[in-house]
Amino acid sequence: MLNQKLQQKLQQKLSPQQVLVMRLLQEPILSFEQRIKQEIEENPALEESSEADSQEEEYSDELSLEPLEEDQLKDDLEERVELNNEFSIEDYLEDEDIPGYRLTTSYSRPDEESREHPIISTISYQDFLLAQLGLSNCDDREFVIASTIIGNLDDAGYLRREESALVDDLAFNQNLQTTPGEIGNMLKLVQSFDPPGIGARDLRECLLIQLEREPELTPAVELAIVILRDHFDEFSKRRFDKLTARLKVSDEELKAAIQEIQKLNPKPGGNIPETSRSDEFIIPDFIIMNIDGELELTLNSRNAPELIINRQYQEMLQAFAKKRSKATSSEKAAITFIKQKLDSARGFIEAIKQRQETLLKTMTAIMEYQRDYFLSGDETMLHPMILKDIAEIVNMDISTISRVANSKYVQTPFGTFLLKSFFSESMQNVKGEEVSTREIKKILQDIIQEEDKNNPYTDDQLVDMLKGKGYNIARRTISKYRKQLNIPSARLRVELQ
Question: Does residue 296 sit in the same domain as residue 391?
Fold first, then answer.
């Protein structure tokens, strides 16, 4: 049975302006710059300011836009829909005047040098292989098969797909009937291209291809080929004692063979010529400098434009205001459009200012919280810090702090780091003091770096050594920290001296 009833409930909703601020807040500087360019393209009332415009706006007391309250926004929406004669432009134009410089936003410091990174023309390693394929003596059918193989190589240069799957691809996409044997023959052609090792199906095959293309087959190279071909499992697990026993070679001979293997490239897909490889830059969102023992924080935004409200749109709205009573329906629609764009431009500039203030406020709290580290660069000086700690300091929600720390980098005198890497859980040492897990990881890393590689420490030994330093940690925690630091187990850290 259907019935109707009234229900009252209280719920919280974010305004469109708050949603915009949150979206801008979580974007790192590069995507933020793209977002600004997109907004300028979509909103003609928003524009970049030249130096002359900035000086003019600084001393201007002309038309300005006062932010509207929520109730006014609702009334404004009704006016846009109805387009009736009760629409008052004067109410919009005659709000409390705000100096023009408050409608601009600039991210650059006066003394900051303007830098631009050139765009480098690059080619992928697949293009590099296709160029070599074009120089080979193969017919059209073989060219299509080899091109398909090259197109299926992963970033490391390996062919991870089965030959039967490539047969199906060629049948469906190229209407070309072939066999796994024919695929294998063309794969050998691709494997003969540079860089050596390209087109291999696994690491063992990749290393063998490179060794077999050595210009001189020395005893060490020949032994390395035998190790990879017949004893790869023992080699990958670093069971050197079994290798010397099975191959009946001395430790010096085995060491020479392993050195030949270590010279090889396990990822030939990244071994394209240096002239065609692009450099990758990390542009930090924050810069921390140590000036005579005092930390100085700046928001890096050298590529962000200075935004202002388009003056022509303001003047157009003034011109329509003078003839409001005689405005036609098309002119009323134009008034609504102009006002909408001006409101949107003003809101976007205000959102950028809020983003900048939130970033600086949050990063300042992080800098002061980790002041000892930023002054010394010693990772053992890092204090335990979670999102809640900073949220309480700046009096913001944890989700806001999370957005600030997301995908942003800070440049320090000791390097450029991901901001969220400074957040870590806490543990208690034997004295009952709270210490950062990152401090423990640093000590663990230092111990492993200084160990005897002939007899590396086991996890149980590492537990005892950390207990001796005052850190009571379980063995499974040591194993977890090793994996986070990309440190293999003791057996895989064995090296021949």
Answer: yes
